[in-house]
Amino acid sequence: QVTLKESGPGILQPSQTLSLTCTFSGFSLSTYGMGVGWIRQPSGKGLEWLANIWWDDDKYYNPSLKNRLTISKDTSNNQAFLKITNVDTADTATYYCARIGPTVATFAYWGQGTLVTVSS
Amino acid sequence: DIVMTQSPSSLAVSAGETVTINCKSSQSLLYSGNQKNYLAWYQQKPGQSPKLLIYWASTRQSGVPDRFIGSGSGTDFTLTISSVQAEDLAIYYCQQYYDTPYTFGAGTKLELK
To answer: Which of A47, A116, B22, B24 could staple B104 via S-S, CB 3.0–4.6 A?
Structure first.
């Protein structure tokens, strides 16, 4: 059974760095063709893709976030991470991690999401 | 970036009706190397995570009822829900995974008439 669960700080202040963790089970990020992505959704709004990391450590980012993103993984502990630097109120959203691949090349399994609020 | 345009933005239906949601991409999502369209449909109910319904434009994800049908190719795609049930009331998103940045449509909210 594939499960993913996001964790984060809940609330942080503008200009701080947001650190998110995705802890998953039921698959390995060392399996050929496997990946994990991060997607966010402000309350009442649509979905925005942020980044993907693949089994071979290949990484892709949304250029709209202008180099503020860093994605990484810890294969042995079944975790993926996302850091967003210099946050502001526009980064307030629910953040999801999701599995990609190996046979379905998009987000087939999603976590429950973690709400992050940026406020002074 | 590939822009995904969904229509309508909302739709009021009665149970048992058939509904059609449209999604148009700003460039073709058909990859010539494998003749697959890199287009997915998701369903999101209030307070829940998105759920993958359709990928490769027309392949139903395991466990998805066969009343959900994806069609289209190139730049024009459709999600058809036949005989809508109350449990289908949700927001539906299309998404392209042809190229990064992956992009989503703005969503179509399916409501009860």
So the answer is: A47
Instruction: Pick the residue from chain B with its C-alpha nearest to A6.
Output: B49
The conformation of residue A10, written as its DSSP 8-state character, comes to: S
Tokens encoding B41:
């449909």
Contact with chain A for residue B109, Cβ under 8 A: no
Contacts of A109 in chain B (CB under 8 A): 52
Q: What is the tens place of the pLDDT at every residue in B58-109?
A: 999 999 999 999 999 999 999 999 999 999 999 999 999 999 999 999 999 9
How many other C-beta atoms lie within 10 A of the C-beta of residue A58? 9
Between strands B30-31 and B10-13, the pairing is: unpaired
Subunit contact B38:A96, Cβ cutoff 8 A = no
Chain B residue closest to A61 (CA)? B101
Kindly state whether A52 is in contact with chain B, defined as any CB-CB distance less than 8 angstroms: yes
Contact A46/B107, CB-based, under 8 Å?
yes
Model pLDDT, residue B113: 86
pLDDT of B55? 98
Using pLDDT thresholds of 50, 70 and 90, give the confidence band for residue A4: very high
Cα–Cα dist A19/B110, whole Å: 35
User: Of B69, B75, B60, whose CA–CA distance to B29 is shortest?
Assistant: B75
